[in-house]
Amino acid sequence: xxxxxxxxxxxxxxxxxxxxxxxxxxxxxxxxxxxxxxxxxxxxxxxxxxxxxxxxxxxxxxxxxxxxxxxxxxxxxxxxxxxxxxxxxxxxxx
Length: 94
Description:
Blueprint: H1 5-8, H2 11-59, H3 61-78
Helix pairs in contact: 2-3
């Protein structure tokens, strides 16, 4: 058998190389899973945007904007800010 560079390395160095190889494969597996999760999130993002685009085509963008403003106004009046911060809803005066 022809000697290799590994034959010249002390056991401690070989053990360190083994730890690095194990850690590398573990991190690569985790990276693969994170990449898959990121792809799932990208798909979910696109699905949400597309569903709203379809809804805007059916109901009209102006109607959706008006509905959002009504809902936000309701939430603003019904859900006060935390810590008793005094605030006025947009368009309302005391």
